[in-house]
């Protein structure tokens, strides 16, 4: 696995080693030992999967303390633009984001640690998206940032005004009005 650093401390793009021949392909999608050595020690406790249609944007989600989550995400069918936004108070990159296209062809994965909001837009007709979490979901800690917050400068690669959003995602506040309780000194894992 190749680990690619991003401009956001702790956020990584992971490129698996792909073995292809006339039968198809094989790759190791996750190894606890390799992840601990090359990224950081994280204990994942839950796997999730979603299927969405073109034009869906999910996010920007995060869990408030003490239920923050790290996520290891990938798109197994179709294509998404995956986004992480730094929401750590006191961070030199606070409010900045990294975006990466994840698709069934490139097989890239994206590690989004605690202290970052996460979202994705669906670029293909449909997309199947899988992710591992290092903490269980707690509805009382659920929070989000408006996808339409122009101060974030995110190009979702689909028209946001025509995006298909959940009722919950329609009502998130811009970053400046969000309750952020994760500090730059809190642990990323």
Would you mind describing this structure in some detail?
By secondary structure, this protein is mainly β. It has a single domain, classed as Jelly Rolls. The protein contains 2 helices and 13 strands. The strands form 3 sheets. The protein has a 6-stranded antiparallel beta sheet, with no helix packed on it. The longest helix has 7 residues. The relative contact order is 0.25. The mean pLDDT is 94.
Uncertain segments are: none
Tally of structural domains: 1
Number of helices: 2
Amino-to-carboxy terminus distance = 20 Å
Mean pLDDT score, rounded? 94
Helix proportion: under 10%
Question: What labels describe this entry?
Answer:
189 residues; Jelly Rolls; 6-stranded antiparallel beta sheet; 5-stranded antiparallel beta sheet; 6% helix; 39% strand; globular
List the SSEs and their pairings.
Elements: E1 2-5, E2 12-15, E3 19-21, E4 24-26, H1 32-38, E5 46-53, E6 57-63, E7 71-77, E8 79-86, E9 97-103, E10 109-112, E11 116-122, E12 126-133, E13 142-144, H2 167-170
Antiparallel strand pairs: 1-2, 2-10, 3-4, 5-12, 6-11, 6-13, 7-10, 7-12, 8-9, 8-11
